[in-house]
Amino acid sequence: MEIRKFREAAGLTMTELAGKLGVSVPTVSRWESGEDSPASPRLPLLADALGCSIDQLYGRGSPPAAR
Description:
The chain is an all-alpha fold. It is built from five helices and no strands. The protein has helices at 3-9, 14-21, 25-33, 43-50, 54-57. The longest helix has 9 residues, at 25-33.
């Protein structure tokens, strides 16, 4: 998944993203490192928070636009 790329493009810190999703910063870190993946019910919320589609999170579709 390309969570870090989209998070940085959205101008969010790990702390900000974690707060938007109601998870811990270590959880976001594990997602970004590929050590763990978000649960499927959380994917729409994650995509919305990052301003992208679920397909884009998986590397399918166009890259994020700079904000």
